[in-house]
TrEMBL record:
Key word Transmembrane helix present: yes
Record flagged with keyword Transmembrane helix: yes
Organism the protein comes from: Streptomyces ziwulingensis
SUPFAM superfamilies: Sortase
Protein name: Class E sortase
Top-level taxonomy: Bacteria, Bacillati, Actinomycetota, Actinomycetes, Kitasatosporales
Residue intervals passing through the bilayer: 30-57
Any Pfam family the entry gives: Sortase
Keyword list, A-Z: Hydrolase, Membrane, Transmembrane, Transmembrane helix
Sequence segments annotated as region (Disordered): 1-26
Amino acid sequence: MAATTDTDHEEQTDAPGPPPASRPRGRGRIALAVSVFGELLITGGLVLGLFVVYSLWWTNVVADRAADKRGDKVRDTWAREAAGPGGPGALNTRAGIGFLHVPTMSEDEILVEKGTSMKILNDGVAGYYTDPVKATLPMSDEKGNFSLAAHRDGHGAKFHDIQKIAEGDPIVFETKDTWYVYQVYGTLPETSKYNVKVLGDIPRESGRKKAGHYITLTTCTPVYTSRYRYVVWGELVRTQKVDSERTLPKELR
């Protein structure tokens, strides 16, 4: 048997192997494009998710804080006036005129301010209409329609569960001196956002034909959109004077 020499071994190990397979350039570019596109989708999803959190959660937090501060200011003013000389005093619409209570919709009290612009409603309050139809304030003792609006999602979402309100349910408006107790008699789950007839002094679309003391709640629908309006109508059934303890009317106990 012939021995293998060092020279033979070196020649065998130094022999070049087959050339590495070349990678098609087209596939590399496609893979890169897919990777970049995927990263963009992930980034876009994160941005969209953060926007949703901001719109539906954080704006509620900010609006609730603002509404609580403004509500406390109104109640502090009422307390000071109650401790001072008698008399109704001038109506201060700048800070808020009272609080709306709708037990079947929410356990929260809702501060009511003048106007329905986004600047006002974004503070987590309900606003009474001044345009295109002027609301009739219950404190005026005049017959008419106390028409209100509030957000259904984001910015406090005070009318978020408006669909829970049913015929016969109470709606109570609290002022410094009086509780105004309304009873729901009609709802309109969907109508055009341009339909101002629902705000009329006599809300004929609700079936009423005579002047009276009405209240109307309006908000956007479907939820998370502003395509249509949801409407609830009520009529004043009684009033109750506020006592020194601000005892709640039976409808809120």
